[in-house]
Amino acid sequence: MRLHAKASVTGTALVGLILAGCAQGPTKEEMTDAVPLSADQIEAAVVGNTLYQTGYSSDTKWEWAGYFAPDGTGRGKAWWPGGKKTGTADYEITSDDRWCHEWDNFWDEGNRNCFQVYREGDELHFLSDDAENETFTVKEGNAYDL
What we know:
By secondary structure, this protein is mostly beta strands. The protein has a single domain, classed as Lipocalin (Beta Barrel), CATH 2.40.128. It is 12% helix and 47% strand. The protein has helices at residues 13-22, 39-46; strands at residues 5-9, 35-36, 50-57, 60-68, 74-80, 83-85, 87-93, 98-103, 112-120, 123-128, 133-139.
């Protein structure tokens, strides 16, 4: 199991709001069919695959995809009409079954955040201690040629 790795993902002010919790997924209570993942299961689900998310900020549709390579690096992009951005983060899959990350830019205000990860079908829910959560669809391999 990989406990420490680096990831690169994309970002903008728009996506910063998304990744800072403005694109809320369901609460833990609403995830009736979701199964908590172990550290090994988190690694198996994320590493070598793409996480994808879409939503709206005001009337603007945005999309985000991040590929997390087996060598511990990741590449990603966020895009919307008229723009896209990139950023980097350190991430860790901890021995207590949590995904943690710290962005090098304004996302999460530079704080390290950790999440319990739940699987529900082909979606992963990342739920933090302060009830912020994100939902991503898992796409096999490097689905967006990142």
